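TA notes. Do not distribute before section.
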Amino acid sequence: MLGIRTSGAVNREKRLMIYDLEFGDEGTDVRRMQEHLNNVSAAGLSPDGGFGTLTRTALRNYQHGVGASQSGKVDEATFNALASQGLFLLGPPAAGSSSSLSWPPASANPAQPTVARTEAVFSAFEFRHAPTATDPEHIEILDDWAAQNIVRMHIPQLDKGLFAAGRHYVRREQGTISCHRLAAPSFIKLF
């Protein structure tokens, strides 16, 4: 993974690399890098926070474009190039940072999702695989399941927030999300 620490005067901040970001890493910094690569090089990545094959290829293309070694990982030269173009990474979470939050205890034996369990809760629907350029796992629902089960909810805390719209983000005046009607009451409790 890759992070930063800063040194120097407040008005002249220098970013220093303190760890690598490479294939197999996951997290917020990976997602931020994916978004940045989309903005500066039209990489066409889905910013999912997973440093996979597509992210590595996009990074190698970026490295080639800036004259850095095409290692496919964010080494110091690549970090400096990304940082000079405005990428700001958060760094690794501090050890024990989740212990100060009110996390529920982890389940010792969580139920694993299965098709049968999912259909029992949310019902079955007919669909077909319909991949797109930005979503190779995209499906198209063929019956009226979505109309009967998916609800749109306004979440005031998300007003004026950024939302994914294809390969870009757009600011929405009203923050809304869509989810299954049975999950909506539990989801609302999060806010």
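Switch to the second chain here.
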Amino acid sequence: MKLALVVMLACGGNYIDPDGENIFFYEECLHMNRGQFTEELHNKCKKYSDIKLKESA
């Protein structure tokens, strides 16, 4: 019974991502630019994430 509840909560549409909303695009950008993490890369990936979120909305 508990397992079914966990599966239902994990697969439901109201799941709250603890890392933030739609963190996927930011992580995708970091992966595509595999290098040393810099403030410039952070800003680039944040901008990329914002653009992708607007496209998917």
